[in-house]
Specification:
This protein is α/β, with parallel strands linked by helices and about 290 residues long. Helices cover about 55% and strands about 10% of the residues.
Length: about 290
């Protein structure tokens, strides 16, 4: 298949949520989109709703052979033009008290959200350099401030902030722009999946730890459920991703959503102890 003159972009984690919204939006905007999915059936579903420019590829960010196979496909089709954009979107959320989270679960959180992003970036950077392209990392407002139960997820997003800053300086000699998107509450299946995952983790938690953290878990779950009712559509994030890929001089950071902007502002002006008190009151945390 020839990709013609369309700019080519790879998106990881494109099966659902923000990744799928980005794939469809960029497809409609005329990009050739290589949509990374882990299951063939997810790719088939994307193809049904997209144009011929939307090309699903099997891509598991935690599996190096999978990354290399995806790279081979993209390199063969892009040729000397190289790859214009990489959207590192794949991610999971592993909610749990830090005292109680199983270490394999914590490692999995970092493996997907941090190490996987770097592995994909390392693989595709030579193609991006050819095109003087762009890299867009999907962060979160949780990469600036965290709440109880979300320490592991926030740690991964804080790490992605640092990686974005370092990479932006490292690749600037080749005209490559690097941006990070920092959404607040977005309508996406990640939180339903993480809630189901958390329920199973809580069931296996030691009885004493479960008793100790039950009030905090209940308080945070209630707030998260309420936030989900106010979440904005993933399409809003997709439009910001397009801006980061096409603006003459893209921003280094894009806050998305009113809640994200408020949390970022408060984090800048309030001392830590005051922020702790505010969160304790708003979340109705035990203290």
């Amino acid at each position: 298949m020839s990709i013609g003159n369309a700019r080519a972009v790879v998106i990881t984690g494109a099966s659902t949520g923000i990744g799928a919204a980005c794939a469809f939006h960029l497809d409609r905007s005329g990009f050739t989109v290589y949509a990374g999915v882990r299951k063939p059936e997810d790719g088939a579903r994307l193809q049904q709703s997209g144009s011929d420019r939307l090309i699903p590829i099997l891509l598991d960010v935690t599996d190096q052979p999978s990354i290399q196979r995806a790279l081979t496909i993209v390199a063969e089709q892009c040729g000397a033009k190289g790859l214009y954009g990489l959207v590192n979107n794949a991610g999971i959320a592993v909610p749990a008290p830090l005292e109680a989270i199983p270490l394999p679960d914590f490692r999995r959180q970092l493996d997907v959200n941090v190490i996987g992003q770097l592995a994909v970036t390392q693989a595709f950077l030579p193609l991006i350099r050819q095109a003087r392209g762009r890299i867009v990392n999907m962060g979160s407002i949780a990469g600036r401030s965290t709440i109880p139960m979300m320490g592991a997820y926030s740690a991964s997003k804080f790490a992605l902030e640092a990686m974005t800053d370092a990479l932006r300086l490292e690749v600037q000699p080749w005209g490559i722009h690097v941006s990070i998107i920092e959404p607040g509450a977005i309508t996406t299946p990640i939180w339903t999946k993480s809630a189901d995952d958390a329920a199973g983790r809580e069931a296996s938690m030691e009885a004493e730890l479960k008793r100790l953290y039950e009030p905090t878990v209940a308080a945070v779950r209630k707030v998260v459920d309420e936030a989900a009712t106010r979440a904005i559509p993933a399409d809003v994030v997709a439009k910001i991703v397009e801006e980061a890929l096409t603006a003459p001089v893209p921003k280094t950071r894009y806050l998305v959503g009113t809640d994200a902007k408020i949390r970022a502002f408060l984090g800048q002006i309030l001392p830590d102890r005051i922020m702790d008190r505010l969160l304790t009151a708003v979340l109705k945390l035990p203290h």
